[in-house]
Amino acid sequence: MKLEIREKRGALVCFLGILANILLAAGKIAVGLIYHLISVTADGFNNFSDCLGGVAVLVSFFVAAKPADREHPYGHRRAEYIASMVSGMCVLVLAAELLRASIGAVQGEGGEVGLIVYVVLAVSVAIKLGMFVLYRVAAKKLDAPALGAAATDSICDSAATLVVILGGVLAPFVPFADGAAGILVSLFIVWQGVKILKDAGDELLGKAPDPALKEEIRAVALEAGVLGVHDLMIYSYGKGVTFATLHAELDASLSALEAHAIADGIEQTVREKTGVCLTVHPDPVDLGDAEAALRRDVWEAVRGITEGLALHDVRRLGEDRIEFDVTVPYSCRLQEEELRRALSSSVEKKTGRAAVIRIVRE
């Protein structure tokens, strides 16, 4: 789907969500103030915070659509993450105030709840369930994580409103029930705000790429006839703006023109299949018998030291030293120096050569 169409459809979904949340917030706050039900008022402010989140996402769709310029050569796609963080801060401020009011309401007396309160809350649950379906379908079709988060928020809001209904039912019999329900709703809003900040922060800090995307890029390179792939790095600047680099191991006997043609072919195929702008670094590998035997000996020495270890760029450094790179997963609990000592000791025993090792986490 073209990004322009994605933005227009995403904006329409956001607008519908904002309109629904405005109506829900107005109805709940009104009946909450009339019947002095802090939990209903708190739930109304929760819907108002959803409006802020919806506005932030709506604005971000338009900002993200701006083309790259001199100050922002990679575009403005990360505007969605910044908008989410602003929304998250607003949510936390509202939650703090509502929590304070709810704690005070615990000391109050239970009030009479009119039928209109239950009608408004029941309609709210139905609308939120409808919004959940709308956001969920749109998130999948548009591949929009922000709308996926809104879907989760909507289904959670339905559950929160059910808690408010329970508080209203118990309020005439248990004086502190309404205040207690308000506290639960306020804490729920805090949780939502923290989650929004964490998700947006992860994206801005540099979230780990999708493993499926990494495997697809590796598969394209291997299908092109390379001997191996390592040091695959993926950098995202928002939806549709992703760059990557990798080292492709190629037969050292190939000419520079042949290696360049293979690298260009991989870059073009990856762009067509995934939209990722890839840069390939050809890594020459000597397939001579002596070098192949050396790489085999080094691999036999290092495998089994830690799970998920990958070996590449094995090179001789004179007669008594050897140099190579290893890639280890972040799940490896060995510290870098501890791992280097273990690798060096094993390689020296196997080959009789001192090892110069570069460790890369992936």
Notes on the protein architecture:
64% of the residues lie in helices and 14% in strands. The protein is an alpha/beta fold. The protein has three domains: 3-205, Alpha-lytic protease prodomain-like (Up-down Bundle); 210-282, Alpha-Beta Plaits, CATH 3.30.70; 286-362, 2-Layer Sandwich (Alpha-Beta Plaits), CATH 3.30.70.1350. The strands form two sheets. Strands 1-2-3 form a three-stranded mixed β-sheet, covered by helices on one side. Helix 2 (38-64) runs antiparallel to helix 5. The protein is elongated. The mean pLDDT is 83.
Distance between the termini: 31 Å
Order of secondary-structure elements = HHHHHHHEEHEHEEHE
Report the biggest beta sheet as strand number plus sense, adding barrel if it closes: 3 strands, mixed
What amount of the residues lies in strands? 5-15%
Low-confidence stretches: none
Q: Please, what is the average pLDDT?
A: 83
What's the total count of β strands?
Answer: 6
- Round the Cα radius of gyration to an integer and report it: 29 Å
Judging from the principal axes of the Cα atoms, what is the shape?
A: elongated
Q: Can you say what the CATH homologous superfamily of the largest domain is?
A: Cation efflux protein transmembrane domain
**How many structural domains in the coordinates?**
3
CATH class of the largest domain reads Mainly Alpha
In CATH, the topology of the largest domain is named Alpha-lytic protease prodomain-like
Q: How are the strands of the biggest sheet laid out side by side?
A: 1-2-3
Relative helix content: 55-70%
Second rung of CATH, namely the architecture of the largest domain: Up-down Bundle
> What class do helices, strands and sheet pairing give?
alpha/beta
Number of helices: 10
